Amino acid sequence: MISTDTSFDLAAGALNLLDCGVIVLDGEHRIVLWNRWMTTRSGRSSTRVCGQSLFTVFAELRGSRVEAAVLAALVDGNARTVSQGLERAPFPLREAGSFDGARIEQAVTVSPLREGGATLCMIEIRDVSGTIDRERQLLEHAESLRARSYVDGLTGIHNRRYFDMTLDRELRRAQRNGGPLSLLLMDIDSFKAYNDHFGHQQGDTCLITVAQALAAMLKRPADVAARYGGEEFAAILPDTTAEQAAGVAEAIRLDVAKRRLAHAPAAHKDHVTLSIGVASFSKDGLNEPALLIEAADKALYAAKRGGRDRVVMAGTDPSP
Ligand SMILES: Nc1nc2c(ncn2[C@@H]2O[C@H](COP(=O)(O)OP(=O)(O)OP(=O)(O)O)[C@@H](O)[C@H]2O)c(=O)[nH]1
């Protein structure tokens, strides 16, 4: 049979072995128990802190959620968890033996404790640094995956998925505001001949050059350059009228042509060029993504039929 005294010593020994901090406060918030975990993480021994108010020992806890939880536990007798989330750790505790390192991340539970008619309060502090680090890494990883899922792997500009999502969003915004919105669809002329002559790998390099040129020509933050498919590109131009979009399209066409990227002998010209179709939102006409794309696509093929290396506006097909 273990005596009461021995049980008490055992409890104190077990408390000191716990892999978490334990503090017990009396009704006046004075520290009556402070285990070894707390000593090694705070640099303050039990003899130094016992008898003092927790909020004198850690003045920064005044006004904190830990103080609110302690006051509430002593008043209503309910336990509370102080979740840290991604905020600053409440107690100034560091890894054992490192008093100038980073604060350990903490999960804090505050529970009422009744003893001989008095209400005390027990605070448990767990080191959750590993969990929070992993959570941060997972969040960063998820964010980078999300960003990558909107980028075209070859050219580095936005992909078709991002284009579809943005066109949908911008069209709904244009519907609400009645504001202008234009779409450009662009296609590299005679690209089959380019690939046949220079090989697929150089074809890829050509696609990258054109994509980067296109992205650099779009100056407004809301403009979106995307690879629409194969050798086809698209640009979404919010707050841009058909006339302004025609100007942007012409500037892109000229920019690519002026680079004088050598083309295949079988191509329509000795340098790489673009055909571009332009369509603009109208409240009662081109007011859906599919309608706007169809109109820009028709204009693009009108540009092809008209001889390539040109810009055609939707509804103004120049060919007979
Ligand atoms: N190198 C490379 N070629 C691609 C890629 N995607 C599509 N293409 C090629 O782009 C070419 C497109 O050819 P077509 O659709 O016949 O059109 P075109 O030769 O450009 O002729 P026009 O559009 O009428 O001027 C095909 O040969 C495709 O193989 C790609 O990712 N890399």
Keywords:
Beta-Lactamase; five-stranded antiparallel β-sheet; five-stranded mixed β-sheet; elongated; Diguanylate_Cyclase; Rev_trsase/Diguanyl_cyclase; GGDEF_dom
Structure write-up:
Residues 179-316 form the GGDEF domain. This protein is of the alpha+beta class and 320 residues long. It folds into 2 domains: 4-134, Beta-Lactamase, CATH 3.30.450.20; 153-313, Reverse transcriptase/Diguanylate cyclase domain (Alpha-Beta Plaits), CATH 3.30.70. It has helices at 4-17, 36-42, 46-49, 54-57, 65-76, 129-148, 160-177, 191-198, 200-217, 242-258, 289-305, and strands spanning 21-25, 31-34, 80-82, 106-115, 118-127, 181-188, 224-229, 232-238, 274-280, 311-313. The strands form 2 sheets. It has a 5-stranded antiparallel beta sheet with strand order 2-1-5-4-3. A hairpin with a 2-residue loop joins strand 4 (106-115) and strand 5 (118-127). Helix 9 (200-217) crosses helix 10 (242-258). The longest helix is centred in the middle third of the chain and has 20 residues, at 129-148. The protein is elongated.
